[in-house]
């Protein structure tokens, strides 16, 4: 079983739509959680950290359920520029990051 | 924000040759840098942790004699792919953390280096 699992997609949505991505992780001792965005052939960039209480940054909302070992990302009012691959990333009690394979989002006009 | 620069961005080489990739932190010092590899449609896989002034720590299954890592200064780590073969063709990405940010500070990624071995 992979340490971090994501639905690879692609998710094809129209502009303005709301889309949600899910992620599960296998290591219950994981301590930090993140969503990264990766554009084609580019390096990943931190989108937001994920906290147990849930957190929001503009159109993006992240949720963490430690009991279910489940992380989500909600994007509201999708823009064309949101098209990218979204990586779920987990860190245990070391400083290493474990990446999911990513979920690809394509927003169309 | 902090900047990490990788060079070269693209490299094509013949099978059997060696390729060196540089990772530089431009506006901070990094005692630790990480090297990842990403094959098409796959996740980033950690290859090794580069430690300034000491030997790198390699992940299981990564050959240390094939992927030579040198971290001679607080702003530069290099990855040398020795005797490269077509199966080494991949996207290599480094990341670095400001030494002042502590062990769990934010990681900043380089732009990546795409290696194609003919």
Describe this protein's structure.
The complex is a heterodimer of chains A (109) and B (118). Chain A has 109 residues and is mostly beta strands. Chain A is 0% helix and 55% strand. Chain A is built from no helices and eleven strands. In chain A, strands 2, 4, 5, 9, 10 and 11 form a six-stranded mixed β-sheet that branches. In chain A, strands 1-3-8-7-6 form a five-stranded antiparallel β-sheet, with no helix packed on it. Chain A is globular. The relative contact order of chain A is 0.35. By secondary structure, chain B is mainly beta. Chain B is 0% helix and 51% strand. Chain B contains no helices and eleven strands. In chain B, strands 2, 4, 5, 6, 9, 10 and 11 form a seven-stranded mixed β-sheet that branches. In chain B, strand 4 and strand 5 form a beta hairpin. The chains are: A mainly beta (109), B mainly beta (118). The interface between A and B is medium-sized, with 19 and 23 residues.
């Amino acid at each position: 079983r992979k340490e971090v699992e994501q639905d690879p997609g692609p998710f094809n949505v129209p502009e303005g739509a709301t889309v949600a991505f899910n992620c599960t992780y296998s290591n219950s001792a994981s301590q930090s959680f993140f969503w990264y965005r990766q554009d084609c052939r580019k390096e990943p960039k931190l989108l937001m950290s994920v906290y147990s209480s849930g957190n929001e940054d503009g159109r993006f909302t992240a949720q963490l359920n430690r009991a279910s070992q489940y992380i989500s990302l909600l994007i509201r009012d999708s823009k064309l520029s949101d098209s990218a691959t979204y990586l779920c990333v987990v860190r245990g009690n070391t400083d290493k990051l474990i990446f999911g394979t990513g979920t690809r989002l394509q927003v169309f006009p | 924000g902090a900047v990490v620069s990788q060079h070269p961005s693209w490299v094509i080489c013949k099978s059997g040759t060696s390729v060196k990739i540089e990772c530089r932190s431009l506006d901070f010092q990094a005692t630790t840098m990480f090297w990842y590899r990403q094959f098409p449609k796959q996740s980033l896989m950690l290859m090794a942790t580069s430690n300034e002034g000491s030997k790198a720590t390699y992940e299981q299954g990564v050959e240390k004699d094939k992927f030579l890592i040198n971290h001679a200064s607080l702003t530069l780590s290099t990855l040398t792919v020795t005797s490269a073969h077509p199966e080494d063709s991949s996207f290599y990405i480094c990341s670095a953390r400001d030494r002042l940010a502590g062990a769990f500070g934010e990681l900043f990624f380089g732009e990546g280096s795409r290696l194609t071995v003919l």
